Amino acid sequence: MTESGAQLFARLEARRCLKDIEPRLFPEDGGPNHGEVVELYGPEGTGKTELLYHLLCRCVLPVASGGLEVDVVFVDTDYSLDMLRLVSILDNRLSAARSAGSPSAAADEAVLRSCLSRLLVVHCSSSSQLLLTLHFLETTLTSRPGLALLLIDSINAFYWLDRSEGGASFARQEEKLSKCAELLGRLLRDYKITVFATCHAIRRSYSGSSSASSSSSTSSFASTSTTESDKPFLCRPWQRLVTHRLLCSKQEAPKNMAATAGGSKEQKTRQVFTVSTASSSSSSKTKTFRSSSYYVTDGGVEFIGPNTKVS
């Protein structure tokens, strides 16, 4: 296929590097570089989607409000995107950044609309639609040079459906996601975007001769998993793309947290989420690790300070 001048320009133009998208999630200078993939892995209810909202807001907010001011594509495969929640988080962050001499409420509304104009939402209901979406994404990348981030919630939404349709053949079960991963790999190489994707943990009662089990040995992060359920189980092409893996979990806030943080009685029972990050950047052959904790508030994700112990 012949490449147009617009496609060539879009490929060669430097996109915003998101290495500093959230320093509290990644080791020092270990954030995702151009063309890298971050997988947020964990069971349901461990704050993965809230983290995506946090990263999304950080990207679409203007620089004056602490944002990166870049375009984002959100691929919603679970049909769980809560736009009211997202707008509420953006509004809270704009309010927090507002100074005494800031513009009026009408101007704030204009800023909010500007933030939302940087977001493109796509819904998918099958692996085939996800593959078509990634094909469509190349056209979007060509027309929007400010697009730097792709969010997928979640990458394994159609895992069981694909297994069912694939019958007894493991190759057929993984065929569609493998094609998606291969196409995504080309987009990462050509357009240097950054990808964050959630992956819901699945409960497996066996660890035998399945393709998923054997493929976990090929992942660079298999050794960082502490339990069988934490091991990568998606197809090998996807695992080869992942350069950063965030293991998400949840725990109850300790009883002395409110006193330590000067919080209210309500904060004593607030849910604490923990993220353990394993990074292996393409620019470095060494692995780095970091653990972070946070609350989910009305204003979005609120990280707990490094001096606060969560036990």
TrEMBL record:
InterPro entries, per the entry: P-loop_NTPase, Rad51_C, RecA_ATP-bd, XRCC2
PROSITE patterns, per database record: RECA_2
GO CC aspect terms: centrosome; Rad51B-Rad51C-Rad51D-XRCC2 complex; replication fork
Pfam family, any one: Rad51
Organism lineage: Eukaryota, Metazoa, Chordata, Craniata, Vertebrata
GO molecular function: ATP binding; ATP-dependent DNA damage sensor activity; four-way junction DNA binding
Disordered, as annotated region: 206-231
One GO biological process term: double-strand break repair via homologous recombination
SUPFAM superfamilies noted in UniProt: P-loop containing nucleoside triphosphate hydrolases
Species the sequence originates in: Xyrichtys novacula (Pearly razorfish)
Top-level lineage group: Eukaryota
Domain RecA family profile span(s) in chain numbering: 10-201
Gene3D superfamilies, A to Z: P-loop containing nucleotide triphosphate hydrolases
Protein name as it appears in the record: DNA repair protein XRCC2
Annotated Low complexity bias: 206-227
